[in-house]
What does this fold into?
Amino acid sequence: MRLHTAAKTHIEQPAELAAPQSIAVRVYYEDTDFSGSVYHASYLRLLERGRTELLRTLGVEHRDLFAGGRKGGFHFAVRSMTIEFLKPAHMDDELLVETRILGLGGASVEMRQEVRRGEQVLLTAQVRIAIVAEGKARRLPADIFAKLQAGAAGSPSSNRL
Amino acid sequence: MRLHTAAKTHIEQPAELAAPQSIAVRVYYEDTDFSGSVYHASYLRLLERGRTELLRTLGVEHRDLFAGGRKGGFHFAVRSMTIEFLKPAHMDDELLVETRILGLGGASVEMRQEVRRGEQVLLTAQVRIAIVAEGKARRLPADIFAKLQAGAAGSPSSNRL
Amino acid sequence: MRLHTAAKTHIEQPAELAAPQSIAVRVYYEDTDFSGSVYHASYLRLLERGRTELLRTLGVEHRDLFAGGRKGGFHFAVRSMTIEFLKPAHMDDELLVETRILGLGGASVEMRQEVRRGEQVLLTAQVRIAIVAEGKARRLPADIFAKLQAGAAGSPSSNRL
Amino acid sequence: MRLHTAAKTHIEQPAELAAPQSIAVRVYYEDTDFSGSVYHASYLRLLERGRTELLRTLGVEHRDLFAGGRKGGFHFAVRSMTIEFLKPAHMDDELLVETRILGLGGASVEMRQEVRRGEQVLLTAQVRIAIVAEGKARRLPADIFAKLQAGAAGSPSSNRL
It folds into this structure.
């Protein structure tokens, strides 16, 4: 059964992918549910931490973006996600969240994320985020685009479309 | 770009789809984030309420399933989700969550969900859930299968695979 | 051991308390943790729904308050809470959240809340909320004060301090 | 107005308090609400991480406790909290959560917690947790008691009551 293809905009992929950025996160009570494992929606919080830390590494802070003199409060919004929940995580687990920029469109960024426990991949996600101001999608500002491009792979093919 | 096709098992779809089950949910502080709109992961909580209420309507209660004399604690687990975030929802909005069973596999159920505000579709999701006990996927117990089948469309094509 | 007394401002209590406002809430997966019961912080979300619905009944909507032409975005902020967790709630439980205004100060509102399952009281909370704009506590605007006063008991002792 | 005194059991306090354990936490989208600040209930998740890390430092892991051969699944449950929300935290803030054991009762532990941003105290909390199995409060097992006692101050006055 075809689930659908989420990406409606053409997104150029760099020839070589950048190494993923990895953060360690701990599973706490807050992340679990009565089945004894991590609640499925809790992973989205972990994934967002991974994306935020990748952006921070590239010099993009959400708060600056929102308040930093840009009219209307720019912020990133998730446009689509495809998530595979492969194996459960449990209380007290230490997990890795790996995030990698797959490609940049004019108004969106495609990322690939994994949640791992050691060598085991527990979850994979493909996420498209867009930049939004005053409720509308915007072209990525040139300075943000340049920072994200540096975080992709720097190959010519990730030039602005 | 191909995002992937989540469904690894063949899932038979009924000839006619059942009418979706709809629940009303209110947006509270808890659901929003500093961008002023609903936080993307909060929708997953709303979607889960919709699925739970559909199951309840069909006579399947999570707690009974978990504790009801079945060895090892049966529970539903989300296996894959593909979500399109189309328009933002805001504080105090009253939303509808519509849930429909698309098809039944031997060990999983495919659902289609929408979040609406009046006529506007804010989000669509396709969700595959599996039944799990002792950390492993199980065939749907016959009584559960029958209840879910009644909730799909009752057409011959949704017979057990 | 003395825990402390949270209320630093004098709050006048009406001679007769208003009847509490009650809302029904269902326990979903999202509210539970791996102990099998409701996660302690989840009750705070339920309590906030109760307060929001009480305010709505009195004609105070958060979004209007925030965006409604008042300079700086007025919103309510919780200033202190004292919570007793008496008995656990479980998956699929249907709970009542009861909320009552105990008294009004010039810049804050004192509320008493209970979470019940039928006759059983599972949790009690005393909550002081203040009205905030541009990061600072503000006197309650006169129209809001009047609405809250109507929701307290309408007795002369709940006049503005 | 008297809010109440939460501690119903006598809790002995050590003569000298142990130094607090401190963990750093980052504020993410997930923690904020539409007012632009951290959602009040989100602090409870941060506080719980602080308590969990203190317990881990003392050699008490929630999962081991729950599954570790003790009949019925021992786990900690919050019995009461008194929280003062003093100043708001914001998106991207790096916060410190400080946790200190104030005293041990036969069946409960009293803790004092603070959330700080640099020198500023944003929140204080006093929390009583109990150990629970099969839905009932239990005396702290001797090995757990000894570990917690080491984490309090080791003074003679923190002996088992």
Remarks:
- The domain at 21-152 of chain A is CATH 3.10.129.10 (Thiol Ester Dehydrase; Chain A).
- The mean pLDDT of chain A is 83.
- Residues 42-57 of chain A form the longest helix (16 residues).
